Amino acid sequence: xxxxxxxxxxxxxxxxxxxxxxxxxxxxxxxxxxxxxxxxxxxxxxxxxxxxxxxxxxxxxxxxxxxxxxxxxxxxxxxxxxxxxxxxxxxxxxxxxxxxxxxxxxxxxxxxxxxxxxxxxxxxxxxxxxxxxxxxxxxxxxxxxxxxxxxxxxxxxxxxxxxxxxxxxxxxxxxxxxxxxxxxxxxxxxxxxxxxxxxxxxxxxxxxxxxxxxxxxxxxxxxxxxxxxxxxxxxxxxxxxxxxxxxxxxxxxxxxxxxxxxxxxxxxxxxxxxxxxxxxxxxxxxxxxxxxxxxxxxxxxxxxxxxxxxxxxxxxxxxxxxxxxxxxxxxxxxxxxxxxxxxxxxxxxxxxxxxxxxxxxxxxxxxxxxxxxxxxxxxxxxxxxxxxxxx
Length: 391
Prior knowledge:
Blueprint: H1 5-8, H2 11-23, H3 32-45, E1 49-54, E2 58-64, E3 75-81, H4 108-125, E4 131-137, H5 145-151, H6 154-157, E5 160-169, E6 177-178, E7 182-185, E8 187-196, E9 200-201, H7 211-222, H8 224-228, E10 236-245, E11 251-252, E12 255-264, H9 267-288, E13 291-298, E14 303-305, H10 307-321, E15 326-327, H11 339-345, E16 348-354, H12 373-387
Parallel strand pairs: 3-4, 3-5, 5-16, 6-15
Antiparallel strand pairs: 1-2, 2-4, 6-16, 7-14, 8-12, 8-13, 9-11, 10-12
Protein backbone atom coordinates (compact mmCIF):
# COMPACT_ATOMS: atom_id res chain seq x y z
CA UNK A 1 0.00 0.00 0.00
CA UNK A 2 1.81 3.16 -1.19
CA UNK A 3 2.19 5.58 1.71
CA UNK A 4 4.69 8.38 2.14
CA UNK A 5 7.94 6.64 3.08
CA UNK A 6 8.76 8.99 5.93
CA UNK A 7 5.29 8.51 7.41
CA UNK A 8 5.70 4.75 7.12
CA UNK A 9 8.68 5.17 9.43
CA UNK A 10 6.31 6.56 12.07
CA UNK A 11 3.98 3.54 11.99
CA UNK A 12 5.17 2.11 15.31
CA UNK A 13 4.93 5.50 17.01
CA UNK A 14 1.46 6.06 15.59
CA UNK A 15 0.27 2.72 16.92
CA UNK A 16 1.57 3.66 20.36
CA UNK A 17 -0.15 7.06 20.24
CA UNK A 18 -3.43 5.53 19.12
CA UNK A 19 -3.45 2.80 21.72
CA UNK A 20 -2.65 5.32 24.45
CA UNK A 21 -5.56 7.49 23.32
CA UNK A 22 -7.77 4.41 23.26
CA UNK A 23 -7.15 3.89 26.95
CA UNK A 24 -8.30 7.39 27.95
CA UNK A 25 -11.64 7.94 26.16
CA UNK A 26 -13.35 11.19 27.12
CA UNK A 27 -16.73 12.63 26.19
CA UNK A 28 -18.12 15.69 24.46
CA UNK A 29 -16.22 18.91 25.27
CA UNK A 30 -14.51 17.53 28.37
CA UNK A 31 -11.29 16.03 26.96
CA UNK A 32 -8.49 17.20 29.28
CA UNK A 33 -6.27 14.09 29.04
CA UNK A 34 -6.78 13.69 25.31
CA UNK A 35 -6.10 17.36 24.56
CA UNK A 36 -3.02 17.39 26.81
CA UNK A 37 -1.57 14.36 25.00
CA UNK A 38 -2.22 15.90 21.58
CA UNK A 39 -0.72 19.25 22.61
CA UNK A 40 2.39 17.53 24.00
CA UNK A 41 2.96 15.65 20.74
CA UNK A 42 2.47 18.83 18.68
CA UNK A 43 5.03 20.67 20.80
CA UNK A 44 7.44 17.80 20.31
CA UNK A 45 6.96 18.05 16.55
CA UNK A 46 7.80 21.77 16.56
CA UNK A 47 4.61 23.29 15.19
CA UNK A 48 4.82 27.05 14.78
CA UNK A 49 1.68 27.96 16.72
CA UNK A 50 -0.38 26.01 19.23
CA UNK A 51 -3.79 27.39 20.16
CA UNK A 52 -5.55 25.50 22.94
CA UNK A 53 -8.90 25.89 24.68
CA UNK A 54 -11.00 26.40 21.57
CA UNK A 55 -14.47 24.93 22.20
CA UNK A 56 -13.13 24.20 25.70
CA UNK A 57 -10.63 21.45 24.81
CA UNK A 58 -10.17 21.85 21.06
CA UNK A 59 -6.80 22.65 19.53
CA UNK A 60 -5.63 24.37 16.35
CA UNK A 61 -1.95 23.98 15.48
CA UNK A 62 -0.34 25.99 12.68
CA UNK A 63 2.60 24.81 10.59
CA UNK A 64 4.18 27.31 8.24
CA UNK A 65 5.39 26.12 4.87
CA UNK A 66 7.96 27.79 2.66
CA UNK A 67 7.83 31.59 2.21
CA UNK A 68 4.66 31.75 4.24
CA UNK A 69 4.93 32.87 7.84
CA UNK A 70 2.48 35.74 7.35
CA UNK A 71 -0.88 35.27 9.06
CA UNK A 72 -2.70 36.09 5.81
CA UNK A 73 -0.90 33.39 3.79
CA UNK A 74 -3.13 30.74 2.20
CA UNK A 75 -4.09 28.12 4.77
CA UNK A 76 -5.60 24.65 4.36
CA UNK A 77 -7.50 23.10 7.27
CA UNK A 78 -7.30 19.42 8.27
CA UNK A 79 -9.69 18.20 10.96
CA UNK A 80 -9.74 15.21 13.32
CA UNK A 81 -12.37 14.54 15.98
CA UNK A 82 -11.13 13.43 19.43
CA UNK A 83 -14.14 12.47 21.58
CA UNK A 84 -15.38 9.01 22.54
CA UNK A 85 -18.74 7.44 23.37
CA UNK A 86 -20.50 6.37 26.60
CA UNK A 87 -20.27 2.65 25.73
CA UNK A 88 -18.70 -0.04 27.95
CA UNK A 89 -15.85 -1.65 25.99
CA UNK A 90 -15.88 -5.36 25.12
CA UNK A 91 -12.72 -5.70 23.00
CA UNK A 92 -10.51 -7.40 25.65
CA UNK A 93 -7.57 -5.51 24.10
CA UNK A 94 -4.46 -5.03 26.22
CA UNK A 95 -4.96 -1.28 25.69
CA UNK A 96 -8.71 -1.28 26.46
CA UNK A 97 -10.40 1.73 28.03
CA UNK A 98 -9.40 2.60 31.57
CA UNK A 99 -12.38 4.96 31.87
CA UNK A 100 -15.26 2.72 32.89
CA UNK A 101 -18.34 3.12 30.70
CA UNK A 102 -16.51 5.06 27.98
CA UNK A 103 -14.74 3.80 24.87
CA UNK A 104 -13.45 4.89 21.49
CA UNK A 105 -16.15 3.01 19.60
CA UNK A 106 -16.06 5.24 16.51
CA UNK A 107 -12.32 5.43 15.82
CA UNK A 108 -11.73 9.04 16.80
CA UNK A 109 -8.55 7.85 18.52
CA UNK A 110 -7.42 6.73 15.05
CA UNK A 111 -8.52 9.95 13.38
CA UNK A 112 -6.51 11.96 15.91
CA UNK A 113 -3.50 9.71 15.35
CA UNK A 114 -3.65 10.10 11.57
CA UNK A 115 -3.63 13.88 11.89
CA UNK A 116 -0.77 13.71 14.40
CA UNK A 117 1.20 11.61 11.91
CA UNK A 118 0.59 14.19 9.19
CA UNK A 119 1.58 16.97 11.62
CA UNK A 120 4.90 15.30 12.44
CA UNK A 121 5.73 14.88 8.76
CA UNK A 122 4.65 18.38 7.70
CA UNK A 123 6.54 20.05 10.55
CA UNK A 124 9.64 18.10 9.62
CA UNK A 125 9.59 18.51 5.83
CA UNK A 126 7.81 21.85 5.19
CA UNK A 127 7.49 20.88 1.54
CA UNK A 128 4.59 23.24 0.85
CA UNK A 129 3.76 26.92 0.59
CA UNK A 130 1.33 28.79 2.79
CA UNK A 131 0.16 27.36 6.10
CA UNK A 132 -1.70 24.35 7.37
CA UNK A 133 -4.15 24.46 10.27
CA UNK A 134 -4.44 21.17 12.15
CA UNK A 135 -7.87 21.15 13.79
CA UNK A 136 -8.32 18.75 16.72
CA UNK A 137 -12.01 18.93 17.55
CA UNK A 138 -14.01 17.81 20.61
CA UNK A 139 -17.67 16.80 20.78
CA UNK A 140 -18.43 15.34 17.37
CA UNK A 141 -20.70 12.70 18.89
CA UNK A 142 -22.79 15.22 20.83
CA UNK A 143 -23.26 18.98 21.08
CA UNK A 144 -21.49 19.71 17.79
CA UNK A 145 -17.93 20.74 18.55
CA UNK A 146 -17.39 21.69 14.92
CA UNK A 147 -20.18 24.24 15.17
CA UNK A 148 -18.65 25.70 18.32
CA UNK A 149 -15.19 25.96 16.77
CA UNK A 150 -16.65 27.67 13.71
CA UNK A 151 -18.68 30.05 15.91
CA UNK A 152 -15.52 30.84 17.86
CA UNK A 153 -14.02 32.05 14.59
CA UNK A 154 -11.33 29.54 13.64
CA UNK A 155 -11.91 29.97 9.90
CA UNK A 156 -11.37 33.72 10.02
CA UNK A 157 -8.77 33.71 12.79
CA UNK A 158 -6.46 31.34 10.91
CA UNK A 159 -7.44 32.38 7.37
CA UNK A 160 -8.55 28.85 6.51
CA UNK A 161 -9.65 28.71 2.88
CA UNK A 162 -10.57 25.03 2.52
CA UNK A 163 -11.02 22.13 4.92
CA UNK A 164 -10.86 18.32 4.81
CA UNK A 165 -11.54 15.35 7.07
CA UNK A 166 -11.42 11.54 7.07
CA UNK A 167 -13.52 8.89 8.82
CA UNK A 168 -12.68 5.20 9.07
CA UNK A 169 -15.15 2.78 7.50
CA UNK A 170 -15.60 -0.80 8.79
CA UNK A 171 -16.51 -3.17 5.96
CA UNK A 172 -14.77 -1.07 3.29
CA UNK A 173 -11.55 -2.84 2.17
CA UNK A 174 -8.48 -1.81 4.11
CA UNK A 175 -6.87 1.31 2.67
CA UNK A 176 -9.65 2.04 0.16
CA UNK A 177 -11.20 5.52 -0.04
CA UNK A 178 -14.83 6.37 -0.65
CA UNK A 179 -16.68 9.68 -1.04
CA UNK A 180 -19.03 11.56 -3.34
CA UNK A 181 -19.35 15.17 -4.52
CA UNK A 182 -22.29 17.13 -3.17
CA UNK A 183 -24.54 15.72 -0.43
CA UNK A 184 -22.76 12.89 1.38
CA UNK A 185 -24.48 12.53 4.77
CA UNK A 186 -27.87 13.61 6.04
CA UNK A 187 -29.03 16.31 8.38
CA UNK A 188 -30.00 14.82 11.74
CA UNK A 189 -32.83 16.01 13.99
CA UNK A 190 -34.41 14.47 17.07
CA UNK A 191 -37.92 14.60 18.49
CA UNK A 192 -39.30 14.18 21.99
CA UNK A 193 -43.01 13.68 22.64
CA UNK A 194 -44.33 13.98 26.19
CA UNK A 195 -47.83 12.57 26.73
CA UNK A 196 -49.94 13.43 29.78
CA UNK A 197 -52.95 11.23 30.44
CA UNK A 198 -54.89 10.16 33.52
CA UNK A 199 -53.79 6.91 35.10
CA UNK A 200 -55.76 4.40 37.10
CA UNK A 201 -56.47 0.75 37.75
CA UNK A 202 -55.70 -1.59 34.86
CA UNK A 203 -59.01 -3.33 35.47
CA UNK A 204 -60.94 -0.07 35.02
CA UNK A 205 -59.50 1.54 31.86
CA UNK A 206 -62.76 3.41 31.25
CA UNK A 207 -61.85 5.65 34.18
CA UNK A 208 -58.49 6.58 32.65
CA UNK A 209 -57.18 8.52 29.67
CA UNK A 210 -54.56 6.00 28.61
CA UNK A 211 -51.19 7.45 27.51
CA UNK A 212 -49.96 3.99 26.49
CA UNK A 213 -52.54 3.67 23.72
CA UNK A 214 -51.88 7.27 22.72
CA UNK A 215 -48.15 6.57 22.47
CA UNK A 216 -48.80 3.54 20.28
CA UNK A 217 -51.13 5.57 18.05
CA UNK A 218 -48.68 8.45 17.71
CA UNK A 219 -45.72 6.14 16.99
CA UNK A 220 -47.65 4.37 14.24
CA UNK A 221 -49.07 7.55 12.74
CA UNK A 222 -45.61 9.15 12.56
CA UNK A 223 -44.58 6.44 10.09
CA UNK A 224 -47.11 7.77 7.59
CA UNK A 225 -44.92 10.84 7.15
CA UNK A 226 -42.46 8.68 5.21
CA UNK A 227 -45.01 6.42 3.54
CA UNK A 228 -47.64 9.00 2.59
CA UNK A 229 -46.42 12.58 2.93
CA UNK A 230 -43.17 12.75 1.02
CA UNK A 231 -42.00 12.08 -2.53
CA UNK A 232 -40.47 8.61 -2.61
CA UNK A 233 -37.24 9.73 -4.32
CA UNK A 234 -36.45 12.34 -1.65
CA UNK A 235 -34.35 10.59 1.00
CA UNK A 236 -36.05 10.61 4.39
CA UNK A 237 -35.83 8.51 7.54
CA UNK A 238 -38.16 8.90 10.55
CA UNK A 239 -37.40 6.37 13.28
CA UNK A 240 -39.10 6.02 16.66
CA UNK A 241 -36.32 4.70 18.90
CA UNK A 242 -37.72 4.96 22.44
CA UNK A 243 -41.10 4.59 24.14
CA UNK A 244 -41.08 4.76 27.94
CA UNK A 245 -44.16 4.35 30.09
CA UNK A 246 -45.70 2.31 32.86
CA UNK A 247 -44.50 0.44 35.93
CA UNK A 248 -46.57 -2.70 36.62
CA UNK A 249 -49.18 -4.83 34.87
CA UNK A 250 -52.28 -3.62 36.73
CA UNK A 251 -51.74 0.16 36.58
CA UNK A 252 -52.52 2.46 33.66
CA UNK A 253 -49.80 5.13 33.93
CA UNK A 254 -50.24 8.89 33.85
CA UNK A 255 -47.53 9.64 31.28
CA UNK A 256 -45.63 8.29 28.29
CA UNK A 257 -42.56 9.46 26.39
CA UNK A 258 -41.58 8.94 22.75
CA UNK A 259 -38.19 9.75 21.23
CA UNK A 260 -36.70 9.29 17.78
CA UNK A 261 -34.54 10.59 14.95
CA UNK A 262 -35.21 12.25 11.58
CA UNK A 263 -32.72 12.25 8.69
CA UNK A 264 -33.12 14.51 5.65
CA UNK A 265 -31.15 16.23 2.90
CA UNK A 266 -33.63 18.80 1.58
CA UNK A 267 -34.67 21.63 3.95
CA UNK A 268 -38.15 21.53 2.37
CA UNK A 269 -38.51 17.89 3.39
CA UNK A 270 -37.34 18.78 6.89
CA UNK A 271 -39.93 21.56 7.11
CA UNK A 272 -42.65 19.15 5.97
CA UNK A 273 -41.67 16.63 8.66
CA UNK A 274 -41.79 19.28 11.38
CA UNK A 275 -45.23 20.44 10.24
CA UNK A 276 -46.73 16.97 9.85
CA UNK A 277 -45.31 15.70 13.12
CA UNK A 278 -46.90 18.61 14.94
CA UNK A 279 -50.24 17.93 13.26
CA UNK A 280 -50.08 14.20 14.01
CA UNK A 281 -49.17 14.66 17.66
CA UNK A 282 -51.96 17.19 18.21
CA UNK A 283 -54.53 15.13 16.32
CA UNK A 284 -53.68 11.83 17.96
CA UNK A 285 -53.67 13.44 21.40
CA UNK A 286 -57.16 14.79 20.79
CA UNK A 287 -58.41 11.43 19.56
CA UNK A 288 -57.19 9.66 22.70
CA UNK A 289 -58.23 12.42 25.08
CA UNK A 290 -54.72 13.13 26.35
CA UNK A 291 -52.36 16.08 26.20
CA UNK A 292 -49.14 15.78 24.17
CA UNK A 293 -46.23 18.14 23.66
CA UNK A 294 -43.77 17.85 20.77
CA UNK A 295 -40.20 19.06 21.28
CA UNK A 296 -38.50 18.96 17.86
CA UNK A 297 -34.72 19.60 17.94
CA UNK A 298 -32.94 20.60 14.74
CA UNK A 299 -29.44 19.07 14.80
CA UNK A 300 -26.45 18.82 12.48
CA UNK A 301 -27.05 19.99 8.91
CA UNK A 302 -26.36 17.77 5.90
CA UNK A 303 -22.71 17.14 5.07
CA UNK A 304 -22.22 18.55 1.58
CA UNK A 305 -18.89 18.15 -0.20
CA UNK A 306 -17.71 20.85 -2.58
CA UNK A 307 -17.52 19.22 -6.02
CA UNK A 308 -14.16 20.71 -7.06
CA UNK A 309 -12.51 20.05 -3.67
CA UNK A 310 -13.86 16.50 -3.74
CA UNK A 311 -12.34 15.89 -7.17
CA UNK A 312 -9.03 17.18 -5.85
CA UNK A 313 -9.21 15.02 -2.71
CA UNK A 314 -10.04 11.99 -4.86
CA UNK A 315 -6.94 12.61 -6.96
CA UNK A 316 -4.82 12.66 -3.80
CA UNK A 317 -6.47 9.49 -2.53
CA UNK A 318 -5.78 7.80 -5.86
CA UNK A 319 -2.11 8.74 -5.55
CA UNK A 320 -1.97 7.09 -2.12
CA UNK A 321 -4.14 4.02 -2.68
CA UNK A 322 -4.30 3.65 -6.46
CA UNK A 323 -7.22 4.80 -8.58
CA UNK A 324 -8.76 1.33 -8.53
CA UNK A 325 -9.09 1.61 -4.74
CA UNK A 326 -10.96 4.93 -4.71
CA UNK A 327 -14.73 5.13 -5.12
CA UNK A 328 -15.42 8.71 -6.15
CA UNK A 329 -19.20 8.46 -6.72
CA UNK A 330 -20.27 6.36 -3.75
CA UNK A 331 -23.61 8.06 -3.27
CA UNK A 332 -25.02 9.44 -0.05
CA UNK A 333 -26.00 7.87 3.24
CA UNK A 334 -28.30 8.70 6.13
CA UNK A 335 -25.64 8.96 8.83
CA UNK A 336 -24.71 12.42 10.08
CA UNK A 337 -21.52 14.31 10.92
CA UNK A 338 -20.85 17.70 12.51
CA UNK A 339 -18.03 18.37 10.03
CA UNK A 340 -21.01 19.68 8.04
CA UNK A 341 -20.66 22.98 9.93
CA UNK A 342 -17.08 23.38 8.71
CA UNK A 343 -18.17 22.59 5.14
CA UNK A 344 -20.87 25.26 5.46
CA UNK A 345 -18.15 27.74 6.44
CA UNK A 346 -15.54 26.74 3.84
CA UNK A 347 -15.39 24.51 0.76
CA UNK A 348 -13.84 21.13 1.27
CA UNK A 349 -14.44 17.40 1.34
CA UNK A 350 -15.07 14.51 3.69
CA UNK A 351 -13.88 11.01 2.80
CA UNK A 352 -14.16 7.52 4.24
CA UNK A 353 -11.08 5.33 4.63
CA UNK A 354 -11.65 1.58 4.72
CA UNK A 355 -10.40 -0.34 7.72
CA UNK A 356 -11.39 -3.81 6.55
CA UNK A 357 -13.62 -6.26 8.35
CA UNK A 358 -14.28 -5.29 11.96
CA UNK A 359 -17.11 -4.66 14.36
CA UNK A 360 -19.24 -1.75 13.26
CA UNK A 361 -19.02 1.82 14.46
CA UNK A 362 -20.54 2.43 17.91
CA UNK A 363 -20.29 -1.29 18.73
CA UNK A 364 -18.70 -2.34 22.07
CA UNK A 365 -16.29 -4.67 20.21
CA UNK A 366 -15.15 -2.07 17.68
CA UNK A 367 -11.46 -1.22 17.46
CA UNK A 368 -9.58 1.02 15.02
CA UNK A 369 -7.24 -0.75 12.59
CA UNK A 370 -3.76 0.67 13.27
CA UNK A 371 -2.52 -0.46 9.85
CA UNK A 372 -4.52 2.28 8.11
CA UNK A 373 -3.14 5.16 10.21
CA UNK A 374 -0.12 5.74 7.89
CA UNK A 375 -2.51 5.72 4.91
CA UNK A 376 -4.68 8.46 6.40
CA UNK A 377 -1.65 10.47 7.51
CA UNK A 378 -0.18 10.21 4.01
CA UNK A 379 -3.45 11.40 2.51
CA UNK A 380 -3.49 14.47 4.76
CA UNK A 381 0.17 15.26 4.07
CA UNK A 382 -0.03 14.92 0.30
CA UNK A 383 -3.26 16.93 0.29
CA UNK A 384 -1.33 19.88 1.71
CA UNK A 385 1.68 19.40 -0.57
CA UNK A 386 -0.49 19.21 -3.68
CA UNK A 387 -2.91 22.00 -2.72
CA UNK A 388 -0.09 24.42 -1.86
CA UNK A 389 2.98 23.12 -3.73
CA UNK A 390 6.42 24.47 -2.91
CA UNK A 391 8.51 26.02 -5.66
